[in-house]
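Example complex used in Figure S2.
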Amino acid sequence: MIDTTVAWIALPFFTGFVIYLVPKMARWLAIGIALVSAAYAGQIFLGEPLNIQLLDSFGVSLIIDRLSGFFILTNAVVTAAVIIYCWQSGKTAFFYMQATILHGSVNATFICADFISLYVALEVISIAAFLLITYPRSDRSIWVGLRYLFVSNTAMLFYLVGAVLVYKANNSFHYEGLLGSPSEAVALIFLGLLAKGGIFVSGLWLPLTHSESQSPVSAMLSGVVVKAGVFPIVRCALLLEAFDPIVRIFGVGTALLGVFWAIFEKDTKRTLAFSTISQLGFILAAPEVGGFYALTHGLVKSALFLISGILPSRNFQQLQSKPINTLVWIALVIASFSISGFPLLSGFGAKILTAKNLLPWQVIAMNLATVGTTIVFAKFIFLPHKKLVLRHDDKADASQKIQSGFWWAMLILLGGLIVANIVYYEAYTLQNIIKPLVTIAIGWLAYFVIFKKLVLKLPRWTEKFDHLIGVMSLMLIVVFWMVRV
Amino acid sequence: MLLEAFVVGTILCGFLGIIFKKNLVMKIISMDIMSTGVIAYYVLIASRDGLYTPIIDRTKDVNYADPVPQAVILTAIVIGFSIQALMLVGVMKLSKDNPTLETSAIEENNTP
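Predicted assembly (597 residues):
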């Protein structure tokens, strides 16, 4: 199993470079890598958890268990869907190469258990994500990419200082060393991970980055890449009891913050990006069951981003007057229902599972965030739609608009939602079913009565570059005091 | 202790530079200063038990520096360098339309 794991981790990087040498095979190789990862994730679920220590005590440590399995599976499915979506779009081999390398480095973060391997994996993610964001080569995309790279690299510099303090205290970089380290080490490492994972106010770089990238790239960023920052936090919370409350507090804060911004956003992709922030909060709010939630969220959010890429406009007001194709609308509704927690889709099971593992003080805040989520997605569900009538002359035009790759990607992602729903069938009790239905009813009522007409323009200065960097110093102080207390 | 203060000072200078410098290139240079500070901190911690290069020499009885942080930071140096190269390429592209490279102007032009 050790050999398989090492080979599996190395394979995407090797394949990435092969893709550049054999551009004609690009798509097939990329999809192959995603399938290999899916198979590997399947094996994790069947086998025993593994703790691997490569070389001696200074070497690389890996932990592979069901939690990693869920994240790896998410990564595999989302990558496969994105590659199929791009199949006929004429993207060059460079795109597939970066996607494959990104896939590999994200996988690496899901199994590593020491701070330096994590650092390397996170930095490779930054570089690959930057190259994907700047793929169109326009000025805007370059600026968005630069901003992303700047924020994540600054955060990682703080993280590095934290890592060496952990080493100083324990003579090892293993996650478990965090317990015996000084508070400043914990604060610095958490700051790096929070900024990288888009948690709470240090995650405000995320909306612009995710909304201004091309749809397939947004889907990958929101579906899996942010989870590379969240996963180590979840892992630390599970390994070390002492940090569990801090992580839960951040979870609740993030869930509320994200959903608040998402409700008032008038742009589809920005709404989705803020909703990503709030869903990351749900993952952190109950770390024990974060894996299943991450899987559900990864599938649904990448589906939503891919759909938003083919909607006629990004503005909700314009979408109200431009009916969308009914078939696209159905896909949109399935995804929105899942994220709202409607039964028969895996969002339901994930929400129930998370709700069961909340601590008493979290319950009210998280219920509020759940209602908020239903309000946000009511905006998508109640968009007007009509059956597309194809006339002879514009038939070619219409079929060009939605390529078959889109439908295959939807089939994988939404099918995944339905299949994943069966995994946790114990959730189907009467009480469990009534609760989300009531939540959705309240959310929709609130949407129609209050939020549909309410126009509140939230300021954008919080997303300015200087503020993003400056907020890091504040977060550092906040986390430091949280660890101290 | 004094050295540690200098190292932290360097990191802080770099960090403040990233916030307060207006020019994009200056921001990147500030980030480089910050990473220089981080690298120096690793070297400092490596030398807490001794200063000798960690190559075993049986004829001498000396205190060796800790090789692990040195090896680790080597990786970080390479990564930092490649990220900076990448950023400078981005800045070169941006400079065609924004010759002054004022960050606030670039941000205003490229935010919806």
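Residues 2-110 of chain B form a domain with the Helix Hairpins fold (CATH 1.10.287). Residues 85 and 91 of chain B are 10 Å apart (CA to CA).
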